[in-house]
Amino acid sequence: MRRFFDYRSVSREKRTQILAAMLFGSILSYFLITRYILSIGEVEGASMLPTLKEGDRYLINRIIYRIGDPRPGDIVEIKMSIPDDFSVKRIIALPGDVVQIKEGTVFVNGKSLVEPYLPAGMSTDGKALGMNAYKVSDNAYFVLGDNRSVSADSRLFGAVQRSRLVGRLWLRQIGTDRE
Fold it and tell me: Side by side, which strands form the sheet with 160-161?
């Protein structure tokens, strides 16, 4: 039987070098992919209920916003100001948009926002924003959690700079048991 590669013709030292190079390449590839292309996250807390539950895992597409712009409705992972703290929220408004919350409804540029991902009858409290109109600054995005009653989001801390957007959630509930 003829082998594709007969390792016996290669010295032990050379085989060790090849194996070490393969191992190094694999580790380097893993770190480059998880840093710049795809990474895995896990939901902590209830701010995105019912869309995402505590313990749900997801893939983050880290390259998407290097080649395109965020859009309203995107669920994104945000790097918070505390080191190694991330949050998952939904983009509601883009740079230059005006957001206002009146009588439990979110308005963007004067139009009532259609939010099919929210449970029927859910009301949005303006929190620190109140009923004041908020203009989203350049290079920033207004984000809200889907569970408006418990979410700490742009109503409290203002719009999020684009540089803090880690990426868009790509696949959800990887390897989790759903009820």
Answer: 38-42, 57-61, 165-172, 75-79, 86-93, 140-144, 160-161
> Is 145 part of a structural domain of the chain?
yes
pTM: 0.84
Q: Would you say residue 12 lies in a domain?
A: no
Task: Give the CA distances from residue 84 to residues 14, 18, 100, 161, in Å, rounded to whole numbers and listed in that order.
Answer: 41, 36, 31, 17
Catalytic residues: 47, 89
82 within a domain of the structure (yes/no) = yes
Helices (H), the chain: 12-36, 64-67, 154-157
Segment 98-152, tens digit of pLDDT: 999 999 999 999 999 999 999 888 899 999 988 999 999 999 999 999 999 999 9
CATH number of residue 67's parent domain: 2.10.109.10
The number of domains in the chain is 1
Q: Which domain holds residue 48?
A: 37-172
> Can you say whether the dihedral through the CA atoms of 177, 65, 154, 39 is positive or negative?
positive
Is residue 123 one of the residues assigned to a domain?
A: yes
- Count of alpha carbons within 13 Å of 136, Cβ hemisphere only? 25
Taking the C-alpha atoms of residue 72 and residue 143, their distance in angstroms, rounded to an integer, is: 9
What pLDDT digit, counting tens, does each position of 158-178 carry? Answer: 999 999 999 999 876 654 454
